[in-house]
Design brief:
By secondary structure, the protein is mainly alpha-helical. Helix content is about 55%, strand content about 5%. The chain has a 3-stranded mixed beta sheet with strand order 1-3-2, covered by helices on one side. Strand 2 (about 160) and strand 3 (about 165) form a beta hairpin. The protein starts with a helix and ends in an 8-residue tail after the last helix.
Length: about 230
Amino acid sequence: MIKKFFRWIWKAMLWFFGLSVLSVIIFKWVPIPFTPLMITRIIEFKLDNEGDATFSHKWVPLEEISPNLPKAVIASEDGNFLKHHGFDFKAMQKAFKSNSKGKRLKGGSTISQQTAKNVFLWQGRSYLRKGLEAYFTVLIELIWGKERIMEVYLNSIEMGNGVYGAQEAARHWYSKKAIDLTAKEAAGIAAILPNPRKFKASNSSSYISGRKEKIMRVMRHIGKIEY
């Protein structure tokens, strides 16, 4: 009985490993139509009886997104994105120290980690999910590379209430295409990423306006992004 149980566990692990690697390989080339977060948000919307769920998402290749937006999210979310291999341990340590002192909670997650979580996993906090997040982060770093990770990130993350990806965010906040985003507009989108359902990229609060200015200052020192 015990042998059968462990044999079943072993087979399940092999199936999970095979399917996870296969899915990462497929999504290296195939646009990702939806993410677990998108589904979760629609369900939440329905359960809250708020009428029809707001859902706006359109995939575009990275070359159809203004270079200002990758710069802005790197400046805002992950300054060492082009240097690390999926994990920024210094940022994690800094976030841990800040949180332990009772300051504003910080995650320390890299763009690679956020992409892995958004595309392959459910929301929430648990050791299991964090372990799987690390596993998928390693996979996408090895199989996708930085350029594809950035492309998926900019097409998949929540950039407004029911708004996902750069193209729809540009249309929603600025009535234009993602390729036409200025540095200030890109900084506006990046500034709201910690809580895109609460904050506004345009007609922003003083807090977000301050974040925009800070992001733009950092963007000036990034230069051309070489993946």
